[in-house]
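Example 3.2
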Amino acid sequence: MAHTAPSSRLLSLDILRGITIASMIVVNNPGSWSHMFYPLDHAEWNGVTPTDFIFPFFMFIMGVSMCFSLKKYGEGLSIAALGKIARRGIGIYVIGLLIVLFAQMCRGSIHLDDIRLTGVLARLAICYTLSALIVLALHARIIAINLLIGIILVGYTLLLLTGNGFEQTADNILSKVDVAILGQHMYRYHPDNTFNFDPEGLMSTLPGIAHVLIGYQIGNMLMRTVDVHKKIEKLFLFGTLAIVGAFLFQYGCPLNKKVWSPTFVIMTCGAACTILALLTWLLDVNGKKEWSSFFHAIGMNPLFCFVLSDIYAIGFSAIKLPLLNSSGIPYSIHSAICHYLLYPVFGDGKMGSFTYSLVILGLTWIVAYVLFRKKIYIKI
């Protein structure tokens, strides 16, 4: 559904959202998964790369935005609030399933018996819905929300440490739960695997809820703090303490995106706060806005742009052209772009693969820019 934007928005948050979605589009759509620059790939297990910060940044931003969007419903549950939360949560989850079905259809057949029920959009939907309900159920009480965040993160840490959560074996508690409940509906499940694991699994969604609630609390702080310089100071202070704290505690609880470890939550929320502070200083204090228009267009329609980039990527790989390669196989739009346009200029290695992701980003931005100029904002 298309809406006009509210008159008062936090520009730095819109730009951070745009940067995050643009980065997500780039890392999700290489020309070849076999040729990627290391910073554009996820860490194999413990540790982090720049790419590992992208998804949690969006979770954090969702929490900050939720603080503003739920304000009109007051500090308590209501029929109107429940309806809005349910519609958005279900809508995001269904769109995620439709993308999976679209990908299966483009590959030639639909298999509902092993369709993945988790994923990026599924996690966003679940964490948004539960976090919003928690906030309203607790009447937005700051202390109560902070206490719940602490209980979730400490409890999840104990679960990981006592349940072999950092081991890549069948004894991993997160794997056990996902295999028992989701089975073949989880990420790359195969009964012969010694270790089946879903990076957006059920148990690791718990710290994801804490992640969104931290973003909500930061949004609360931004709303209650009038002076922009005080906002920047508080963002930098929390960001610095969180980054340093997560760095120190990683020796007992490793940074790990796949299990969404508590130190990973704290580290990425701290980094998001720091960058948000920098953007606020750059955009709101110094007025340096000219560079940000590219990201502003994407940031105003973030989930739409994410879904559109998926449609491009899936469709371009599926649609065949009346052009044959040396083996007599038709080129897809994807392979034709790489073979005829990118690889002759940038080579068929990492740079050629990277430039294809920029093509997907550019095509997505064109649509986002048209919508932005027409002040059309599609709420997903």
